Every structure is written in structure tokens, then in C-alpha cells.
Amino acid sequence: MATKGIILSGMRPTGRLHLGHQSVLNNWVRLQDEYNCFFMVADWHAITTGWEEAKEVYPNTIEMVADWLATGIDPEKSVIFRQSSVLEHAELHLMFSMVTPLSWLERVPTYKDQVQKLGEMGKDINTYGFLGYPLLQAADILVYRANAVPVGEDQLPHIELTREVARRFNYQFKSVFPEPQGIINKEVAVLPGVDGAKMSKSYHNYISIGANAEEIKKNVNQMVTDPARIRKTDPGNPQVCVVHKFHRLYNADLLEGIETECKAGSIGCVACKKQLASSLEDQLSPIRERREQILTKKGYIDEILRAGDEKARAAARQTMEEVRAAIFG
Predict the structure, then answer these.
(1) Distances from the Cα of 2 to the Cαs of 5, 34, 179, 190, 270, in angstroms?
(2) Are 38 and 223 in contact (CB under 8 A)?
(3) Coil, strand, or helix at residue 1?
(4) Which residue among 84, 206, 267, 292 is the one 20 to 30 A from 166 at the CA level?
């Protein structure tokens, strides 16, 4: 029997998870049956852009892991752990920082883009920690010697940096690390925010996984539709409508009929939004109920994290023993 590959993936505990995260979590659920998965609460990464809100990391962690578990992440199949509980991440990051050219970090496309976007929102992230976060990501991945990382296309430069760092270390010292591959799942939907921009917690334009019926209705009603459609009977263009993009994922079986009615002007935007809100409630309510049940079990998530932290530390400790031996002999 072939040995299972190792996957590392994570999320930052910076607030409520949204529907954009849900498709990522659904992918994780599939992967945990095929790989040995390490799913990381990236709490150090959370403070690279929000160190002022560091006190919110723990409550956000509990809420986020509740979303993971409610969606189907199984602690019996996967290691669920906190980045900050495994100090080997920081040690490997330091070791990598000694041999990684500064120019490699400065050329990561998301660095300048994020500095500009968050700067426009009043956040100054011109810090050593933010510049170095792609290298910390490389350490996160390689400390478990992961050979696969599920990512979106915008994250591929980070995986390539990780591969370069692994290659450089292996050449300079000893072959310790694999060169991980990015796994792009085309089924992971990229959903826009209700305003048509990228769905993001930072932009407050999202629908959370744990949203109740009233929140779902409110958010769907805010969705941007075809601006050229003035009257209900005007023919619409589904391709420029945010509501339609959600119908593709949450009403796939009815999509053809929805498109036909929209183009013919036989369904108005209000009715179309009502249909979407109903479908979202039907699909999210079971997750919301499981989530509420999980959160009523006092200490349950803490226990899962403690067990996962210990498993993660054991794997990382073994890697770092080899790293130290490779560097210092």
C-alpha cells in the first residue's frame, strides 16, 4: 500500500469565516481521507496584520475551529493545532531567514498589493514580520515535510518560494525537505462579496458560515445586481450579477431556469434574491446547528487543540533534530 502524502494548510483566526472559506473547508474534508493532514490555526500570521487585536486571537480561534468541525473536519483523521503552540515553526523560520535572500521576499506579488490595500484602510504593515510572513509560511509547510499544499492560484508564488527555500537549504546543508506541490482544486469556488469585490473579512462584505436566517436575508438583499436593469420586466444579464454567481454554487440544479427567467425579464431581482436566501438557509442551517452544539460543549475545542498541538510538536521536533544536525553537524 502506498504511503499517504502529507498536507499542511491553515487559516488565520481574524474573525468569522465566510462562504468563501466554506468551499476551502469542503476541499479539506475530501483531502483528509486521502492524505495525512495538518490543519493549522495560523495565530502568528493573524498578528502580522492585526497585532493591535491580538487579544481577539483566542476567541476567534474557538469560533473558527467550531466552523471547521461543523463543516466536517475530523480530529480523528486530521491534526488540528495552533501554530503558536509549536515553537519549532519559529526556529525553522529563523534558520531559513539566515539563508534566504531579501529579494526573494520583496518579489512575492501579494506583499506590495497587501501593503497598498491595507494602507488605504489605515493599517501600517510595513513591518519586518509582514515582509517575512511568506518565509514563515515556508517554515509552516516544511517543518512537517509536507509534500502538498491546497491553494488558490493567487497563492502559487508562495508555494514556489517554499520550493526555492527547500531547494536552497538542501543544497547548502543536507537534503532534509521535499519540494511541495501546490494543489489547485478547480471545484473550490471563488465567490465575490455582496458588493461584487473580493469577499473578505477585511472589507465586511461577506456572509458568514454561521449566519442565521435573518443575517442571510440581509446580506443577500445587499447584493449588487445588473445595473442596467431598471424595471422588473427588463431583460437581465446574469453574467454581471452577484446573485447569479451564488446561484451557480448553491442552486446549480436550477441554474438554467434561473438564467432563462432573468434574461426574459420574467423574474425580478427581489424574487431572485429571495430564492437564493432560501437555498442558503437550507444548506447552512445544518452547519449552524452543529456549530451551536459544538460550542455548548465546554472545553471541547480546547481538548482537540491540545491533542493536536502535541501531535504537531512531535512531528516538528523530529524535523528540527535533522535540521540542526544538517546545519551544525
Answers:
(1) 9, 11, 19, 33, 53
(2) no
(3) coil
(4) 84
pLDDT above 90 (res 114): no
Q: Supply 327's cell numbers.
A: 546545519
Helices (H), the chain: 19-31, 43-50, 57-71, 88-99, 102-106, 109-120, 128-131, 133-142, 156-172, 213-221, 242-250, 255-264, 269-296, 300-328
pLDDT of 286-313, one tens digit each? 999 999 999 999 999 999 999 999 999 9
Give burial (CB, 10 Å; 0-12/13-18/19+) of 26.
Answer: middle
Residue 190 contacts residue 7 (beta carbons within 8 Å):
no
Please provide the average confidence, as pLDDT, over all residues in the chain: 93
pLDDT > 90 fraction of the chain, expressed in percent and rounded:
78
pLDDT in tens, 205-235: 999 999 999 999 999 999 999 999 988 889 9
Instruction: Give the amino acid at 194.
Output: V
Q: Residue 125: pLDDT band by 50, 70, 90 thresholds?
A: confident
Q: From residue 111, give the alpha-carbon distance in Å to each of 15, 134, 171, 213, 312.
A: 21, 9, 27, 37, 28
User: Dihedrals φ, ψ of 79, to 5°?
Assistant: -95, 115
pLDDT of 2 reads: 59
Cell output for 140:
509552516
Which pLDDT tens digit goes with each residue over 251-269?
999 999 999 999 999 999 9
Residue 56, C-beta contacts closer than 8 angstroms, at least 6 positions apart: 14, 50
Q: For residue 171, what are the contacts with CB-CB under 8 A and spacing of at least 6?
A: none
| Domains by residue range for the chain, with CATH | 6-190+299-328 (3.40.50.620), 213-292 (1.10.240.10)
User: Closest by alpha carbon to 206, among 73, 215, 214?
Assistant: 215
Answer for the pair 8, 146: CB distance below 8 angstroms, yes or no: yes
